Amino acid sequence: MKKSTSSREPKNSHKTKNSAAGDVRIIGGQFKRRVVRFIDAEGLRPTPDRLRETLFNWLLADIHDAYVLDSCAGSGVLGFEALSRGAAHATFIEINPAQSNMLLQSAEQLHLSTDTYQIIQGTAEKVLMQEQIVPRPFNIVFIDPPYAQDLWQPILMALITQSLIDNETLIYLEADKDLATQLKQLAAVLNEKSTIQPTIDFECFKQTKVGQVVAGLYRLSSS
């Protein structure tokens, strides 16, 4: 299931409530069992516990002191889970103003130091192209927007063109289909636009499927 609100405005955004409609528990680390809350908004469904546990098992050796981007934050549970497990800093990007405010409330309720997180309200791909995002590059990036919109493509494009990721960055992608073909196509587009060698590709070294959801951990590779 997708966890994030869309990085484009929902059709019924005027109906979005400011009050919390649900909550999700952090499952590991110093904030284990603490709750983060989310509003009643179209497309906002947190990544389920089973998949989240798998993801952070993959990241076990890499999460400590990592600089993390939760690119379509929604509830923010992936970013907060990362901080709970030892990440140094998390940047959250969320399009919905009410949910962005809820992220701030969650951070305050967890008593996070303001130098350990950044919350930016806006469209993920536009924010990444326009904002002065610090730090760079990120060590870990979470990308799991609503599946039908394929927003991971422009988000990845922005991350690469703005040098916000490199060959050491771990990229988590979540979708309702295997993304191998689309990633090859994206790499081809990027290589065609660039006159710089070597060419880039995407390497998948972890992947799982839970129901109809396909999730994987990727890195940029070059040749």
**Structural class by SSE content:** alpha/beta
Number of helices: 6
Largest sheet, strands/sense/barrel: 7 strands, mixed
| Inertia-based shape | globular
Estimate the helix proportion, in percent: 25-40%
- Going across the biggest sheet, name each strand in turn: 5-4-3-6-7-9-8
What is the mean pLDDT?
84
User: Which value, in Å, is the CA radius of gyration?
Assistant: 16 Å
Q: What is the β-strand count?
A: 9
Order of helices and strands: EEHEHEHEHEHEHEE
Separation, N- and C-terminal Cα atoms = 34 Å
- Tell me the β content: 25-35%
The low-pLDDT segments are 1-17
From the structure above, extract its key features.
alpha/beta; 9 strands; 223 residues; two-stranded antiparallel sheet; seven-stranded mixed sheet
Summarize the topology.
Blueprint lengths: L19 E6 L9 E5 L9 H10 L8 E4 L6 H8 L4 E6 L2 H13 L7 E5 L2 H7 L9 E4 L8 H10 L8 E6 L4 H14 L6 E11 L2 E10 L1
Parallel strand pairs: 3-4, 3-6, 4-5, 6-7
Antiparallel strand pairs: 1-2, 7-9, 8-9
Helix pairs in contact: 4-5
Tell me what you see in this structure:
There is one protein chain. By secondary structure, this protein is an alpha/beta fold. It has helices at 49-58, 77-84, 97-109, 124-130, 152-161, 180-193, and strands at residues 20-25, 35-39, 67-70, 89-94, 117-121, 140-143, 170-175, 200-210, 213-222. The strands form two sheets. A seven-stranded mixed β-sheet has the order 5-4-3-6-7-9-8, sandwiched between helices. The longest helix has 14 residues, at 180-193. The protein starts with 19 loop residues before the first strand and ends with a strand. Mean pLDDT is 84; it is low at 1-17.
